[in-house]
Amino acid sequence: MKKLVSKVKGLTLVEVAIGLAISAVVVATAYAGFESNARRNEVRANANAITEIISGAKKTFGSSPTGYENVTTGVLLTSNVIPKSMQDATGATAKNSYGGNIELTSGFTATRELLSLDWKSVPAKQCMDLAMALSNSVESLEVAGTTVKLNRDAEINAATLSAANACGSGQAVDFTFTFQRS
């Protein structure tokens, strides 16, 4: 009698381990790409919101006889310069997508009238990207209390921006964008 010997078919433990290792590399790469893309999208959305608020303030108050005098966060909320989607239920305060408050204050120098927009609680991972995205849109920029752009014609000081007291701290930071009347 002849015995029938059948070969066992399937994967060995080594083959399974190699397949899992390759899968892990693919998943890790996809996740890193997704996280980076999500960060860029949030920076872009915040930069657009800031630009819209600055443009709205200039359009609504920049050419009026009183200009930015007495312009406050409340005034911009009631005039809908700050989008309703950013306002709280009472319409008294506004928050950015990071959960930080949005605040505006007016000020004057010897030669011009200014409005400052505070954008609070920017995550450290997005700090540098947000600053660079808005560098040409503002008169001056402070990050975590440190001036990183002095005037309209100046470039952002990248060394100061990445210092421990600005974007390099690892903590969420507050931005202050200052712009002048049109």
Query: Secondary-structure element order, as H and E?
Result: HHEEHEEHE
SS content category: alpha+beta
Question: Number of helix segments?
Answer: 4
Cα end-to-end separation: 101 Å
Query: Strand content of the residues, in percent?
Result: 15-25%
Descriptive overview:
With 182 residues, the protein is an alpha+beta fold. The protein is built from 4 helices and 5 strands. It has helices at 13-61, 73-78, 124-134, 158-161, and strands spanning 102-108, 113-122, 140-143, 146-149, 173-180. The chain has a 5-stranded antiparallel beta sheet. A hairpin with a 2-residue loop joins strand 3 and strand 4 (146-149). The N and C termini lie far apart (101 Å).
Give a short summary of the structure.
The chain has helices spanning 13-61, 73-78, 124-134, 158-161, and strands at 102-108, 113-122, 140-143, 146-149, 173-180.
Topology of this protein?
Blueprint: H1 13-61, H2 73-78, E1 102-108, E2 113-122, H3 124-134, E3 140-143, E4 146-149, H4 158-161, E5 173-180
Antiparallel strand pairs: 1-2, 2-5, 3-4, 3-5
Helix pairs in contact: 1-3
Features:
five-stranded antiparallel sheet, alpha+beta, 38% helix, 5 strands, 4 helices, 182 residues, elongated
